[in-house]
């Protein structure tokens, strides 16, 4: 994730992140070729398979492992499957057996899978560029090439650098214009790696150097390289063991963050180019294991902010880029329950501040030379949540949520040097779809041009430049969808389901109007997440068209625990109210059945990470309600994991799930933890995925969950585990590899519905 200031609430290093397929453009969708069946499978029962044929699933051995707390004894027969070294031959053999079984079960529908993959890939304009970002004398952008998995990082000189930025600005690409320069080609860098990801790419202020963070395992432990932007020549030795939090301090130094043994970002360092990493100076060490460190540059690029953050409290330091020798200074003090983030413009810091009383946040400002003297610019409002702010030299942009929908409001600021007071006369940017997504994009601080991306469940990703002085909006690029895609064929809706306690839960819905009957006979895929105050956006996903064009309805249940309806929506779906997340989802599913969007026999569900916990919980609670389920990298062994502080990220998560070393939390968490609630009952068809190198949800959690389900469930439905042996939490890294994974998932759903023969074509 890019670490722009306005993405602050997305940059937390969570154990469980959003599904990439819902937050990335279709050119970078996530999802893998099935591993070949390469091993003999141990004998167990032989369930019949939908689509014909029979196979024997692996049966994990049982080794009794007792865990006792508060007089309560839990037995985990599959605890042995956890191997932190990821090298135990017996464990690896079992994972390969599971992959081989998955491949065998899905082999009968390989033609359908290949067809869906061809459809998805056929919609993509493979050779494409992003909208150029003008920075100083260059336009910066990324390019994708036909047939290539990864991007090129490029730039061109701006021909007339003195011309002011304009919404009508375009990058000249003619033969007489400045030529394209490829700074770095990920397709070359990725050679020899089965996984490759660059997750930070920052240019020095003078545009001569680039620092980038590289991960070749999927374990999210990065190596940072500095190169000459023109020649590509390495500058100094690589920095190892870093996070993606990386910023320039002038043209000759970098500030970065490293992690402790549990992968908690805990130290901030200053590195001077040309020196060895061992001589870097540590600017701050956060010793409290409930807190993690993050950093980001102000939009003005004059300051770098370091945030120390728990799930309820954030305090901020700053470093003046022009005076790095002065080190870090405190901007906002550490106060329990007070959450702050900061930026800068002129002679003021601007601070977004949340507390228990001001739960939806306010925006305040303070002079650089007197940070205790604060002025409220935008007050707290109970019905409007401030998600983030973005500063310009003359404007403040506020990203908000009201009634579950995103809003963008901008204010003109008084000239620098004049007093700041309560801001009035905010202008809202208008959007058309009933449900939609708006995301900030980086732009020039010194301009009046706001750049954002817009999409909806039926509207492809669109990048707009909006002139805050004139109100003129220009569409810079809309994601190309090849073929005969016509957005007008698709209907988007927002419905509301009644939760068990009477709370209204929003549901975003999309379907193709000429392919559905809405009489209860249509298949439906329901997605859910509901944790960390993250709002699941109603984004466009190009691959999803292969379901919609086959007559599927797609819906998102915006359950409590997320942030869609404000801070309290999150508070009412965490800790001792976590079960609201699961019962909300069940209520949404029941509503969709009641309103004849589908029937129980046609209802499929999907969730990743914390959303995988949601899927695991509702499968135990109401297995009769669903026909099929996909649990991606699911956090399913909640109690065991949260009792083990040696597992990465555990201690920082106690404020999200609760600390089970306390009896009340122990028994509450046990009552919903999927691993602890598997029972002898019929379950629907289930696909579970994991990644061997996943640092957020250890591969052993999904693996143990499948082993226990295999042993205890009383049905003959499909149960599959798909483990990526060379990837982490985000699965495969290549853009086409991710599309193959989409195709695999959709094929599993169609197979589970026994609709392979009736849903062959997704063509318009």
Architecture overview:
- By secondary structure, the chain is of the alpha+beta class.
- Helices cover 17% and strands 30% of the residues.
- It is built from 13 helices and 38 strands.
- A hairpin with a 2-residue loop joins strand 24 (395-402) and strand 25 (405-412).
- Helix 3 crosses helix 13 and helix 7 crosses helix 8 (610-621).
- The longest helix has 18 residues, at 89-106.
- The chain is globular.
List the helices and strands and how they pair.
Elements: H1 20-23, E1 66-69, E2 72-75, H2 89-106, H3 110-122, E3 128-129, E4 133-135, E5 138-144, E6 151-157, E7 181-185, H4 186-189, E8 197-203, E9 209-215, E10 222-228, E11 239-248, E12 253-259, E13 265-272, E14 281-285, E15 292-297, E16 303-309, E17 314-320, E18 329-332, E19 339-345, E20 348-354, E21 362-367, E22 375-378, E23 384-391, E24 395-402, E25 405-412, E26 427-428, E27 437-440, E28 449-455, E29 462-467, E30 473-478, E31 490-498, E32 504-512, E33 524-528, H5 545-548, E34 553-557, H6 567-571, H7 579-594, E35 603-608, H8 610-621, E36 628-632, H9 638-642, H10 650-657, H11 663-670, E37 685-691, H12 700-712, E38 719-724, H13 735-752
Parallel strand pairs: 33-34, 33-35, 35-36, 36-37, 37-38
Antiparallel strand pairs: 1-2, 3-5, 4-5, 5-6, 6-7, 8-9, 9-10, 10-11, 11-12, 12-13, 13-14, 15-16, 16-17, 17-18, 19-20, 20-21, 21-22, 23-24, 24-25, 25-26, 27-28, 28-29, 29-30, 31-32, 32-34
Helix pairs in contact: 3-13, 7-8
